Amino acid sequence: MPHVLDRPIWSALETAHAHLAEGGKSARRYPPAIVPFAASADDTPESLDALENLPSQEESMILVESGPIAIPPGLAVITEASVVQMVAERRCERISDPRIQPLTEADAADMLDLATLTKPGPFTLRAQSLGSFWGIKSEGRLVAMAGQRMRQTGFIELSGLCTHPEFQGRGLGAVLFRFVAGEIASSGDTAYLHAYAANTSAISLYKTHGFALRSEMNMRVVKRRS
Questions:
Q1: CA 167, 182, 187, 125: dihedral to nearest 10 degrees?
Q2: Cα–Cα distance between 190 and 181 in angstroms, integer?
Q3: Cβ contact 177:142 at 8 Å
Q4: Residue 27 forms beta bridges with which residues?
Q5: How would you label 127-147 residue by residue, b for 16+ Cβ within 10 Å and e otherwise?
Q6: Under 8 Å CB-to-CB from 16, ≥6 apart: which residues?
Q7: pLDDT of residue 189
Q8: Which is it for the CA torsion 204, 185, 37, 137, positive or negative?
């Protein structure tokens, strides 16, 4: 049987994030201002046609699935990459750290600036619409953060983990990783994440914190053909 995380975007938009979904029964996407993720319900012609009609001419969409991704004829692939999906093998303990504080809408611009600098993945000013984020500041300046992104029944994605280059090597990313994983576990859900397959250093870090490879994933960025 297919796993709920094999098509994580569709599973999220069909369940926990259904209130955010644009589209219908055959294809859905998040509002582009939140995150450019989209998915079809399956690979039938009806679903692929619905997926093709989701973006405007100027918009791009990101598709992520465990198997080969069927691309409708009206969409062109502009970027592709291999991704790994990792899941917490054991319950992550909840921790506390006085440096970590919840981030709010007032931090949105600083969060986007940090994500733009460090490139942890797709990020927008409205990223907090998907889940909670926490950060560490130095003299009022946001220097590290991590939070929650997609949600499926029983699972929450850990995402947005990044540290300003001037503050790397101090363990800030590791402590935020442990903190967010613990918060997810405390809610009764299992933490999971995605990482580029080529990012071996990050994958090694995640393994040391009890995350194991669940599946290799395919990522495609698509756009309407002219």
A1: 10
A2: 8
A3: no
A4: 40
A5: bbebbebbbbbeeeebbbbbb
A6: 151, 152, 153
A7: 97
A8: negative
Sheet with 60-65, side-by-side order of all strands: 60-65, 211-224, 75-88, 190-196, 155-163, 141-152, 133-138, 100-102
Task: Please write the tens of the pLDDT for every residue from 64-83.
Answer: 999 999 999 999 999 999 99
What percentage of the chain carries pLDDT values higher than 90?
A: 96
| Cβ partners under 8 Å of residue 31, min gap 6 | 20, 22, 126
Q: Which two tokens stand for residue 205?
A: 């870090």
CB-based contact 101:220 (threshold 8 Å): no
If we measure between CA atoms, which residue out of 95, 68, 41, 39 comes closest to residue 222? 39
